[in-house]
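One example copied in:
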Amino acid sequence: MWDVKKLYSFSIDDELEKLPHTVPELAGIEKHIPGLKTLIHPKIHWVDMKIKHKGQDDISMEDIGGNSFTIDSSYVAKGLASCENTTLMAVTIGEEITVNSNINYGKGQFWEGIIADRFGSYAVEVLIERFHKYLKRNFLSKGLYSTLRFSPGYGDWHLQDQRRILDILDTKSHITVNSFSILEPTKSITALIGWSRTHQASNYPMDTKAKGVCDGKTNCQDCNTWACRGGSQG
């Protein structure tokens, strides 16, 4: 079995309270925050691994029990080129806020439905960002610096790997994936973080268009790469 860690009591209440003041489209919803917060139920699954092999177009990792995970992606391999450890994770805030949004839509309460949906989208981003910061503090004490986060569907990392990740992290009670490789509940994220002995730049890999990674020289309107140097993937 994989050496998976699970956390079901990770509070992000303080960050959620600040959203109306930091996110323009949520401005003015302060009185709705207490009710919306009751619909947020964070759950986190993760596993720490050592990098065993680094190729130009693939990278292989192994947990403490010797279980291995290989990613066929030049984008990820390039992003983790200077790393020696990784953390693979899946986070969710649950399905309750999406159910609430759909109920409001069904009643014709469109504003309430939109607000619940947008609040949920920002809440799951808050969750993974806060957990990332938590990991950064722990790994920095070991002299290791964090890369940015990488997720399936970006660069040339195939979205179909969502299923492999969820199987590894044993999330079936809280997060599943449908036939289109979309996570359910929808307010969920999978990600991989690298840990390096050297400080990591805060940008994503750039390469030739042939590898499906932005080279920083293309007009965005005409770009057909899968990853963007200016993207908000995080």
